[in-house]
Amino acid sequence: MKTRREWAEAHHHWTCEYWTSVLWTDKTWVEDGRYSREWVTRSTSQGYNADCVVEKSKRVGWMFCSCFAGLVNGPCFFWEKEWRSFFFII
């Protein structure tokens, strides 16, 4: 199916009871600290200026993944940057 509309039209006849049997999943990546972006503008005649560079530190991050079906929540999984280290919350 190429578009969301086609997908919706193909599934519009599903009952609420049937939709509750669908497992919905999602994941996101979260980093610790403040997210900001700084911009430096210069003309093409100006060269690189080291004073305009902000050092980037290595930040801690986590992957979060969970699911639900109907009114039932599935487990929540958390991964740190090392993929082999994870824990979950029921």
Automatic annotation (TrEMBL):
Q: Which domain of life is it from?
A: Eukaryota
InterPro entries named among the record's database cross-references? RNaseH_sf
Any GO molecular function: nucleic acid binding
Q: What is this protein called?
A: Bgt-51803
Task: Please tell me the species this chain comes from.
Answer: Blumeria graminis f. sp. tritici
